[in-house]
Amino acid sequence: MSTEMEESESAAHVLLLPFPAQGHITPMLSLAQLLCHAGIHVTFLSTEHNHRLLTQRRALSARFPTLHFESIPDALPPDQAPTIHSLHDISSSLRSVTKPLLRDLLITLAKKDDESYRSTTIRCPPLSCVIIDGIMCFAIDVAEEVGIPVLALRTVSACSFWCYSCIPDLIQQGQLPFQDQDMDHPIRDIPGMEALLRRRDLPSFCRMPIDHPSFKFFMEQIEAITRVSAIIFNTFDDLDPLILPQIATRFHKIYTLGPLHALLKSRVGDDLSSSVSSLRHEDRRCMAWLDSQQSGSVIFVSFGSLAKLSRVQLLEFWHGLINSGKPFLWVVRSDMLSSGQEERATPVELEDGTKERGYIAEWVPQEEVLAHKAVGGFWTHSGWNSTIEGIWAGVPMLCWPQLVDQQVNSRWVGEGWKIGLDMKDTCDRSTVEKMVRALMEEGDQREQIFKSVDNFAKLARHAVSEDGSSYKNLEKLIEDLNEKIV
Ligand code: UDP
């Protein structure tokens, strides 16, 4: 009995704090499961609305006895989806409402002898570490104050993160704000990225005035993250061999664990689907529709959980898709139209004209869709989860980036890794038609792209296998957390 008690006292207990958006919750929840699978206690702290959605399904709690879901208020409307313009408001609300409550919670969880807490929850050891989302930096102050080590999971790509880190240098060199409107002007001063970047490929907030609240929000995050003990990335070493060493020049401890969703499957097994982290209801009928399509014929179109389109853009995309002649599965969220235009998310012509060759869904099981043999191309907004899921599935991509890191990712997809085409900043129907055809039709261009993405898919498989870098880095992270040396 006493040995059991001692073991429990010495085990690691980590609090995970995701940013309240789908693209941040999914990788954080994968990390939570990986840590719990290794016997670590995890408190997964979500804002109230997301907590309700995540805990409605009991599969995870039943499977991982050391996974504890907790909630914290954020004072935001329940259905507020973050946008680049609302980031500042969300951040202010988290700071004013959530921050003091987080301090109280950390103090309680860190106490070795707090019977009141431990008698009301499953017995778990005192809190030994906090892993925050890389843009929840207010939590660094709190963890420092309470005296608990803090790590960050950065849910963006390594190339975007490195770009962010170098933005203060670009400002100092006078490259930001842009002096004129030439968006093709090369950016040559980010080490490791000299040959690739143009102004239009920099994170989207670089297009804002530098005194804009959203620009300031990102600058604060860039500054604050230098204070964490280590950073975890959802990438693998063979994907970013030039960028990771650059990051290591400024951040002494990094763990690359990607693709996290694949590492989870490799370590824990295949029987829990990605649906456990989904905040929306999935339309699974699309899988039957895919079954009825020819192998490699369908272009899957999904712009993630946050992107907004104007009605004009939506119709240009639709005409382009129809004119390309390719079957398509398109995720059109009911909240996808820009504000003031949401009286009807899918215009009538879109629904009518789709019947023959397309399937429109509100939300789909994306990982499963990408793995389906009918899917031959992925038109994406280049969110990092979508991109790494596309790489894992070996599916060539067409990129239409909109927000923040997506601008950098799409450049890497198009010109860095050469696993797709970048359609950045254009969306007229003839460009869409041309690019969908180029992506989907036999020819040298598709063959090159396919070869390249297939190669990265194989490297990703190696990364999450027992000899692979992500697998070994996870072992190291678990060891460091257990020995409390992070
Ligand atoms: N996703 C999904 N079903 C959909 C659309 C998206 O499950 O119909 C998932 C997708 O697999 C990814 C996440 O939502 O894991 C979106 O994250 P990403 O970083 O790509 O974009 P964001 O939503 O943050 O812009």
Automatic annotation (TrEMBL):
What Gene3D superfamilies has UniProt attached to this entry?
Answer: Glycogen Phosphorylase B
Enzyme type, top EC level: transferase
- The domain of life is Eukaryota
Protein name (Swiss-Prot/TrEMBL): 7-deoxyloganetic acid glucosyltransferase
- Mind listing the GO molecular function terms for this protein? 7-deoxyloganetic acid glucosyltransferase activity; quercetin 3-O-glucosyltransferase activity; quercetin 7-O-glucosyltransferase activity
- Catalysed transformations (reactions): 7-deoxyloganetate + UDP-alpha-D-glucose = 7-deoxyloganate + UDP + H(+)
EC identifiers of the protein: 2.4.1.323
